Structure formats: structure tokens, C-alpha cells
């Protein structure tokens, strides 16, 4: 535990470092003070030092890339010792256009004993760096005269119009009286002729027509040399009396071979004579070791791109190392601890508080499941308290008769005002929980009321249990303030994972649900326990009441298909309607399809029924009181189901208890509930395949009876009594485990 605590400390220390560094970068970009433009001062110094001189020298460097390991530590001292009068960067002096990169470059150039000028290159322009370059150094293209030469700087990045630059350049060259002209532009006009791993096509000048005009101008007006960077090589090419020099070895990655090596270019002017020579950074080793040394120097320079960036890189790698350590060396056991005996703790489970975002009288699978568990716990002699929204028109107190603490809604929405967001900040809930003093807190949703339950579990020091009822990702259409794909593919899974891992245990109704939770990263104990049903209530129904209901709905001797579903988009009802329309065309015997349930899609469903010509076949029964639902099941011969958003599909078990074989679209929620070919059929989401199975059961009475008997036998094993006993065993197990953990911590 101590080692884990130290790891956590290092982790959060690194997080703090990263946040501080990011904050400092924000400060540099938005709050740091202004600075003086540097080129005018440098040009004045150069002009003054070379006034009247026919003999001088300057150095050209390229691809400094903010390198401290190479440029600042190695090449810059060579420049200071070389005796040159000034230095020109041919481009890519910074590794990026960020404010910190420009400030780091200023720090490096401060060690130069002579003035320095920068050519505007692609790295200078990146990340909005063009604005910083202009503020810090000056225009992207300019010229000046010093000694017997004119020095011309061009913008080859495309930030400035080439038509304008060409017009300006031609005037500069046509009107010049100086003996020599030198041009600086970041992109080389000619290929270097050497292969290099680190070069790419965009490193060359990309505008062919402009390139031809530039070459013609340089040749016509006697430009002595054109210096470029961008490529990590030293290369020379002569065209029309002009020498084209590529120098890219002042700090970036090089191959350390005959063409690609660390260097700068020294240009010596003596009257009419101009000498251009590369001055290599001599490593003096065997070529193999020299290559390795070059690679190391690159890595060295990368890590020394300013100490802040170095710390940032180290922090990121430390976080990665800690994460890998936890993944590799931390033992995990995804199974419940079998050494924990919960039996002695069964009597300690006396009071259970349940937290839900919806509850009766709201009709849905989750509220019905919660109510069945509540009644099962009550029957087992336990006290229960359900914290849920109040659905009455006025706030009338705590509604103690149904064992709930009803919270007034913060706001209400839905076509029938059926959805309510409970006011979890209401003082009533805090009084109720303190007075109730639960031994277990059971959360039925991973957000809002569920989070309140988890908070109280932490505060009271009692276990928190979460039942995974709902595939949250299929309810993105209810969250209109968040883009659907973002909620469906990221947020929903994150919410379920985060909430589950904060609980002591998670109850899931099927093994496929357990598999999903493990896949998204849930590490806490998971207990597979199908939700119980009131088997006897669904199995035994008064035949006279069923006959009366048939007459009321106008059903005669037709075969009857039944489904129970909320009329909502996530229930895949369009598939059912289209499949029933196909069934109507292919099936010769008459049938009726009864849809029990209501919801926001009712009007659209009604219109769809009309469009498909199913008005005489389909009966929309609407919302039905829970106590009457069993009669509707007993109307039917088969139960149809198409939803793919269920974690269990409790209505399937209810239908089986009523003796109905089930035909459903195969999905994770129903895969463990229907035994294919035994209690019903599971099909792909294919209307023809689904229709074949429905016809098979409607046309083969012996098979339908056999499946009906198997369905009843299967449902009998999922009674509320058995379900409640299993839930109590889970509660006791978690209490015992918590007590054992507390004893271990105290020891």
C-alpha cells in the first residue's frame, strides 16, 4: 500500500508539473510583455561595421530548430571564434512558431558576439508564428546594403504574394549598384541530389512558375549566391552564374554522412572575390560511430529545446511509466473474493436505501425492477427507502406509504411531462438518509440520483451497489446539449465505467452485460443476477378476464402477437412494424398485433402504421397499469421483441411466465434470456429471417406448445423470492469484504 501511495504521489506531482508548464505556455502566449523588433537594430550594426569595407565575412546557418545541444553548445562557439562580421539564418531557426520557441531562440542568439538576421521559413510561420516573427524581427521580405554587397531576404512560404515579391525583387536587382548580391530564402530552388530519410517533397520550393522566374532574375542580374535551408544537407548547385547553396545542419536531425552533417557556411568577400565554404562540426569518429553520435546529438538537442520543454517531456514519460507500471505489476482479480463468507453478515443487512432517476408511477423496466426488489426486501423483513423524483402535481411531503423519499423536480420535460430531474440538493433527502441510517446503498443509475447515493455511501462508510440496468449509449437522443456521437461513443461508456469502479459491487442481469463492463474497464466485483419477476402473477390469470379483454379490443379467433415496449426511438419499433407488414403479405391466416406501452414516438408510430397499411392489424393499447399487464400477455400466442438497448429485457421473462415463446432480434440484452430453439428464436436484424421464425411458430402448433412449456419452466427459475435472496447474499458479501478490508488496514 505504501508503494502504491508513493506512486500516486509521483503521478499527481507529474500532473501538477504538466499543468504548470501548460499554464506557463499560456502565459507566454497571452500575457508576457512586448519586445523590441530586432532586425532594424541588427541591420544598423552591420551597416556601421562594414561601412566603406571591401573585405568582410559572414556566416549562414540553417535549421537551427531551437537546438541547444547542437547550435547553442557546439556551433555558436565556433561562430564566435570564426571572426565573421554577422550571421544569417537561412530558415527554420525555431522548431515551431510558438511564443516559447521564439523566446528560446532569443536566448540562444543572445550568446552571439555579432548581429544576426533571420530568414522567414515554414517553421517560423507555423502555429501562428508569422505574427510573432513580424512583431519580433520585422517584415517577411526586405533588403539592405552593407560594404560592397546587397543582401535580399525573400518569403518562400507563400505567406506573401509572389507577384508582389517578384515585382519588388526585380526593382531591387535592376537598381542596385553594389558589386555583389546575396539572396536568402528558406526553400531550396533545386533538389540536393542526395537521398535523405528526413527530407520530404514539401521541403523544396513548390511553385514551379515562380521558381523559373526567380532563376531567370538571379541569372540576368548577376546574383552571386542564393542561400536556403529546409533540407538537412549541405549542397551546392550552379545555374546561370549564380550559386545555390543549401545549408541545413545547424541543429536538426542529420544523417552524419558526406551530404548530411552538422555545419555552418562561411562566406568571405574580398573585393570582387567571394569564397563559400562549409565549416563542419567535426566529430572525428568512424562513420558508424559518427552516425550514432549524430543520432544521439539529435536526441540531445531534442531534449534541450528549452528546459521547460525538457521538463514537460520528462513529466509525460514519467506518467507513461507509472501507467505501465500499474498495468504490468499491479495484481488484479476480477472475480469476487471466495474467501469472504457473507453468511454471518446476512442479519446485518437491515436497511437498504435505493437511489433512482425514475420510479413508479413512471412506467418502465427500471422502475418496475426497483419496485419488485423493494417488495421482495420488504417481504424478507428488511426496511427500504427509495430516493426518487416526485411525480405528483404538488409537493406533498415524503410520501412514506410507498417507502420512498420523493424529491421535487428541478425541471420537467417530455410530451406528457413524464421526465423529471429530481432536486438532489433538497434538504429533505439529507434528513431522510440521516434518519434512515442505511446499511447498504443501492444505486440504479450512474448519474444524478445515483451520484447522490454514492456520495452518501462514502459519507456513511457503507457499501455502494450499482445495478447496470440501461445501455446508456443508446439514449444519446435524450441528451440534446451534447453531440450524439460524442455521447454515444465516449461519454456514456466513461460514465458507466467511472461510476462502476467507485462502487463496491455491480449487479448485471446477463453475462453479456458483464463482458461489456469488463471491456470498458470496470475493475470492481461484478455479480451476474437476472432481475426477478412475479412468476405466479404472470403465470396464473383469470380466463374470464382475458376473454373480456379480447372482446374489449375487438379480437376474435385470430392469432395474437404481443409486445410490451415504450414507444421511443431506442426500442427499434420501426423494424417491428416493417417486419409485421411483410408478415401480413406472406401469412395466409389472420392475426392481430397488440403493442402495449406509450411514449414520445406515439404519433409518429400511428402515422407509420397508416403508411404501412397495418391499421386493421395493429392495436395500440397505450399505457397499461402494472396489475393488468398479465392479462395482455395471456391474449397472445407469441411475444415479439426488437429492442437492442436492453441489458436483460425483463418483459421477455414476463412473457415466458405467461407461456409465450419469444422471437427477438439478437442483441446483448436478450442473448442470455432466450434459449434459441428452446424458449423462442433469436434472429439477426433481418425482416425476412425474423418473419420466417414467426411463421414457423404460427403454422406449427406442436412446436409452439413445446416452446411454451419450456418458456414457463425457464421463467419459473427467476422468481422474486430467489432474486431477493441472491441480492441479500451480495449485500452481505460486500459488508463482509468491507469489514475484512478495514481489519487489514488497522492491522
Mean pLDDT: 86
Fraction of helical residues: 40-55%
Strand line-up of the largest beta sheet: 14-13-12-17-18-19-20
Total beta-strand segments: 26
SS field, number of helical segments: 24
The CATH first-level class of the largest domain comes to Alpha Beta
Radius of gyration: 39 Å
Topology:
Elements: H1 2-30, H2 39-50, E1 55-61, H3 68-82, E2 86-89, H4 99-109, E3 116-118, H5 122-125, H6 129-136, E4 142-146, E5 149-153, H7 162-175, E6 180-184, H8 208-220, E7 225-228, E8 234-239, E9 242-247, E10 263-270, E11 273-280, H9 287-303, H10 307-329, E12 351-355, H11 365-379, E13 383-389, E14 404-407, E15 409-413, E16 419-422, H12 427-436, E17 440-443, H13 449-460, E18 464-467, H14 484-502, E19 505-508, H15 511-519, E20 525-528, H16 535-539, H17 543-553, E21 559-564, H18 573-586, E22 591-596, H19 602-611, E23 618-622, H20 629-633, E24 638-641, H21 650-657, E25 662-665, E26 680-683, H22 687-699, H23 701-716, H24 720-746
Parallel strand pairs: 1-2, 2-3, 5-6, 6-7, 7-9, 12-13, 12-17, 13-14, 17-18, 18-19, 19-20, 21-22, 21-24, 22-23, 24-25, 25-26
Antiparallel strand pairs: 1-10, 4-5, 8-9, 10-11, 15-16
